[in-house]
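Quick start: read one record
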Amino acid sequence: MSVFVKATGVALIVLGLAGCQPDSRQSGVAAEQAKPIRRTDHFQSLVASGRTLVAVGSFGVVVASADGGATWKRTELPDGAPLVRVASCGDGSLVALDFSGKLWRAPSNASTWTASPLPPSDAVLETTCTADNRIWVTGARGLLLVSDDGGKSWASRSLDEDIQLLNIQFPSAAFGVVTGEFGRVLITRDGGASWSQGGSLGEDFYPQAMHFETDRRGLVVGLSGAVQETRDGGVSWTRTKAPIEAPLYGVLALPGDEAVVVGAAGSAARLTGGVWSPVTGLPMTDLRGIAATATGVMLAGTGAVLPLPVATVTAKTN
């Protein structure tokens, strides 16, 4: 065989392989696009209501499961809505906060979503919905809004201060807590009609997430594994630390004085019997959403919605 023939044959093979590569890449992209949960998804929040799970994130992505996370259905809201929080109301309906200044509402199965504008503000950061279906929104410059009619109209309870109010929760219809910049804590015992100062978290503490199990016990998490716990409804706080150096993005207070915290790069820890233990076996992804289900704890983060691997909790060593 001549050198020319050999060279020509090799060239044709190379060209043939090169021609196959786009098809291979395209099929890989198509396969990824067909998944309800994709590796490019950035989930920011997760809520559980009965067996229904809903996670929301960047670019308008909503995924919902009616079977406790076994299967998922994907929805993409218009205009790439930057969704930062999802919450469930007492009647089972859902609300999702859009950072661009909208509130999205859906029935309990998350089948259809309808947007309504929020009052103008610098930035909206958090939402919750109470047992009696009142919707609250917090944000920059002391923003604190409430709606009694499903988001059609809003009343302001805002502070006249340049402060970010970052987290809000109503463990019961009457009792609510807000945490914000500079360690600020606000408490209501009359359903939000009036608010008073709670115990400070410390001016150096930036509360990235908060969860109350009851009107008395709650936890707040921050940077470098920092955790603060209250047992008197936010009047006083005790500082502790999870065995994590990464920033924490989510917390779940559980019965029996237990808790789970999650954060950057797949970091997680569980509090049991007064001792924090690291949780291993999670993907190296930022974990932000956390919710309790009938069968355990579910997590949501970048490219993943998955159960907490309880079997891989390891004892903390000093």
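DSSP finds one helix and 27 strands in the chain.
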